[in-house]
From TrEMBL:
Homohexamer; trimer of homodimers. This is Purine nucleoside phosphorylase DeoD-type. NCBIfam families: deoD, PRK05819.1. Phosphate binds at G20, R24, R43, R87, I88, G89, S90. Catalyzes the reversible phosphorolytic breakdown of the N-glycosidic bond in the beta-(deoxy)ribonucleoside molecules, with the formation of the corresponding free purine bases and pentose-1-phosphate. The record marks R217 as: Important for catalytic activity. Its EC number is 2.4.2.1.
Length: 234
């Protein structure tokens, strides 16, 4: 047990999928894992461990934003020995060619700041995905009937953004989408010698203002979970 995760030693797998939403962790575990057991309920941040094609997997909610994700990722890496962390979540698209329901695989994550900002001081560290995971996720995504985009994303600290000019600069510099967690995940994995990746479903579009209807979310999120699982065990 850690401060925020109630699992006993050995109850967390080396491979952990991390959706922001704990109810999506429950849904993904019930839909894709065999013999899924709930291993965390602390603060309602549900975590499940089961197997996928015989491989042990944990699906643990991260909460929204980098400070929340940082708590769970730190405890998974430091205390439970997690070796592969894959964020599965939603993002807002920032390029015209990207459509709602498309999948974005994040090579890098630009930020204004992260919970790790203090240790880097004047340095602008470049959070980047594990290449083998990225390559395997791209290969898995290409076998599916889903649009796939690979490149840089923006990990923002705010959903209700009072600085639209920052988004304009992200769009101008080719950033594919915006979410709120990947950069800190990449930094923590690097610090602990682990692998990390973010596989994201486009739920809304910052340029066209379209949004994924709620009745279509499940199917699209399912593609993302399977891409993450195939990448983890490629
Ligand atoms: N902003 C930040 N995070 C997000 C968004 C967004 O528009 N959409 C999904 N996650």
């Amino acid at each position: 047990m850690t401060v925020h995760i109630g699992a006993k030693p050995g109850e967390i797998a080396e491979t952990v999928l991390m959706p922001g939403d704990p109810l999506r962790a429950e849904w993904a575990a019930q839909t894709f894992l065999d013999d899924a057991v709930c291993v965390n309920r602390v603060r309602g941040m549900l975590g499940y461990t089961g197997t996928w094609k015989g491989h042990r997997v944990t699906i643990q909610g991260s909460g929204m934003g980098m400070p929340s994700l940082s708590i769970y990722a730190n405890e998974l890496l430091r205390d439970y020995g997690a070796k592969t962390l894959i964020r599965i979540g939603s993002c807002g698209a920032m390029q015209e060619r990207i459509a709602i329901r498309d999948v974005i695989i994040a090579m890098t994550a630009t930020t204004l700041s992260t919970p790790s900002r203090g240790i880097f001081r004047e340095l602008n560290y470049a959070p980047c995905a594990d290449y083998a995971l990225l390559e395997a996720a791209v290969a898995a995504a290409r076998t599916r009937d889903v649009g796939v985009h690979v490149g840089g994303i923006y990990s923002s600290d705010v959903f209700y953004d009072e600085r639209p000019d920052l988004n304009d600069q992200m769009v101008r510099h080719g950033i594919l989408g915006v979410e709120m967690e990947a950069a800190e995940l990449y930094i923590l994995a690097a610090r602990h010698g682990a692998r990390a990746l973010a596989v994201l479903t486009v739920s809304d579009h910052l340029l066209t203002h379209e949004a994924l209807p709620s009745d279509q979310r499940e199917r699209s999120f399912g593609d993302m979970v399977e891409i993450a699982l195939e990448a983890a065990f490629a």
